[in-house]
Amino acid sequence: MARAAKAKTLPDVADLTKAQAKTEWKRLALELEEHDRLYYQEDAPKISDAEYDALRARFNAIEARFPEFVTPESPSQKVGAAPLGRFRKVRHALPMLSLDNAFAEEDVRDFVGRIARFLKLADDRIDFSAEPKIDGLSMSLRYEGGELVTAATRGDGAEGEDVTANIRTLEDVPQKLKGRNIPDICEVRGEVYMTKHAFLALNERQKAAGDTVFANPRNSAAGSLRQKDPSITASRPLGFFAYAWGEMSAMPEQTQTGMIHWFERCGFKTNPLTKLCHSVDQLLAFHHKIEEQRAELDYDIDGVVYKVDRIDWQERLGFVSRTPRWAIAHKFPAERAMTVLKDIEIQVGRTGSFTPVGKLEPVGVGGVIVQNVTLHNEDYVKGVGNKGESLREGRDIRIGDTVVIQRAGDVIPQVVDVIIDKRPKDARPFQFPKKCPCPLHTDVVREETATGEEGARARCTGEFACPYQKIEHLKLFCSRRAFDIDGLGEKQIEFFFEQGWVKEPADIFTLSARNAKIKLEEIEGYGETSVRNLFNAIEARRRIALERFIYALGMRHVGETTALALARGYGSWEAFHEACLKVARDDEEAIADMDALDQIGDTVIHSIAAYFKESHNRGIVERLTKEVTILDAERPKSNSAVAGKTVVFTGTLERMTRDEARAKAERLGAKVSGSVSKKTDYVVAGPGAGSKLAEAKKHGVAVLTEEEWLKLVGE
Length: 715
Description:
5 domains, five-stranded antiparallel sheet, alpha+beta
């Protein structure tokens, strides 16, 4: 144990101003995280338990006095330490995608109807598998020659963490696949979970040992699986349900339900409640039945998953962005609770948008303690909807009100009603600010809609001069979907920004070179090991996929899906950057080319143009690109005749829907455009083709009938 540091005389928490408390809270948060890392990850604590307890007690006292400081990332909300750089990264051969959600019966009927229209089939000709949606930790198990070689978490869908040593301790995961018909490469996917009984027993042991208890079975399963010592994982009662697959060198079955039975023959446990349904009414009846059984099950579920049963139809349906067309999660009804709204604060987002956030008397909803709730915008607080309609029968939301909050799955909690009978006499209407709370106090304006009317969203006019927006931009830049830099969470970014060490993204990559002056390892809460890990994590992200880089720039209206479409459309950073500069100069040809890309329209183009018209933004990009290597977009692996070609579909297709034709073309490596230009390679025209056919003739583009197209792609 390291020698204790000389004791410091600190002012009583009750005597701190809010600003002083916030500064000390940030410092203590960093210090506690470093001690947690040393204890849980390195097994090398530098202070005694008594000293640690004193730090924790002071931290907790500050949060008790100022509960608005508490965030999901706060050390008080965590068990142990996050696995920063502890597990190596594993890139999934096929992405682990998330599912769209359905919350109402009408959503399910729309889902089935879309599939029927896509496949040009009647609803009752499509079979679906239905299974409970386990609330656990998604896992991908890779077998080669029948032997388990890798186990990886979902991560961001493209890249997860290698937890192979820990997974090998689970009885439900076979080390070698049983039976016959085993493909050379086989990825089995499913959910790691902990039963309710096992969870309660584990918490009793934790309590008896004086250790921190877990919040719910999912957290305990995740925490158990991400232990540095596999023997700790082995001591925890974890289970695994198999229900999906990733890369397969050969498919042993032709249906979803057939694959479930094949998993069983291989030695996996599958959910016995899985059922084959033949209509939308049977799906809804199954959902109702499972909801009734929910409390009796020994594992947590939060809905039911429906999947098209035929695998060849799944392949035809394909994907939309990060979600499959052929599957959906039908969530259970939202859970509600009643509590008191203590205050309303304004959060300034990355693009300057103002979001009022309600500070609640903490309340449990669906196994989660909720302390903050989104109030969306000024009109929502007043009881007015986006279209001017009345919300909550016109009841406004006031500080001091008793409110009903709702939480459905992972959706951010929101206020759905106000209990007027419980409104205190001193309840205060919320006055929406006219000035930004940042030091610049810039004006706040309401956006205009496309029709020129006043919109619901208020925005700070300071843009990148506003420090709040700068910080939020840096947070997005380091986030999981962007550069995904371990060790640069929200608190670290805020701290570095306040110190003046990181003001823009390029500064992150020069931090190590400037550390001789900064001496980060001498800052409270840091040490040589944590500083080394941080710099290694930054170095590991100097190579970045094009779509991630575009998303990380933080342009308005350019989310993950749009960034991916732009990356695929242009292929390289050089091509995309050149196009952006031309669009910013109002180059008509460049604008037309960008508009021709699938999923790209006027709103995105105007946003990109506005971003690159600003010399400040161009400078940020120029300095950043000197520090990183941007990888070209991955092209779909295809040797088809249309790989790399640009295709436009117009008119009515007879043998497939337009959506199916688009999905098929993209799988074969083609780019599908919404408009015709001289860069278009093929226009596939069906009956009723209009202006696009005329444009094709004007530009000399090859025009194909549907039959000619199918012959070209080998159908």
